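Dear colleague,

Thank you for sharing your sequence with our group. We've completed the structure prediction you requested, and as agreed, I am returning the results in plain text so they can be pasted directly into your records. Please verify that the sequence below matches your submission; if there's any discrepancy, let me know and we will rerun it promptly.
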Amino acid sequence: MKHLNGGRGSASTGVAVLDDVLEGLYWGDSVLWELQESATAEPFYQAAARAATGFHYAAYVTVTREPASLDGTYGTLDVIDARPGSSHGSPDALLSTLSVRCSTFDRDLLLFDGLDALAEAWGADAAAEFFASTCSLLLELGAIAYWTYRGVKSPALRHAVRHVPQCAIALEELFRDAARRTGVVADLIADDRVAAATLTGSERAGSSVAATAGKHSSQPAYHECV
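Please find the predicted structure tokens below.
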């Protein structure tokens, strides 16, 4: 949302080639990672946490995991315990906490447990309302937020996912865009956070991906011809 950024500049995702594809993140962006099946956005969450040293405030909001189990997972990020029964465990309480901790126009970063976890804890409609309210609040405060979504079957949540966030990232679409930029796919495959590369495409494309992955022996490549 560069046009709403107010000249405040951009922040890094912590992954150089992703910054190149997205042209950086702008203060107030809510980034939604749409995931399928066993896909995970965890490497991107951890990269964002490592790049968070310049933020005024940075936190991970957990709805499912014990805060103690997250020690060191996201570097020095604060952990907000929003599990049911905790002091931040309701939508209103958590929204109030976020409002207090994030100061207007300062550099803030929030990494959230998945929307599916929020829907399980609070119900899909309450999760959708919280998501919409929080994105609006963080846009006003100039904070960047990461969310994930696996497709909870709720019209209200699905509508919020489609219309609320400033930056929705479907990994399939991201790689299609990256493929148009010379060298970007090779750089992504070469990143030591990538465990494997899978491609559905032509023999030529598959050979290229396999050759790149082969230079990094720990990264197998899988190819299906179409």
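Summary note from our side: The beta strands are 10-11, 25-26, 30-34, 57-62, 78-81, 108-112, 143-149, 167-170, 197-201, 221-225.

Kind regards,
the structure core
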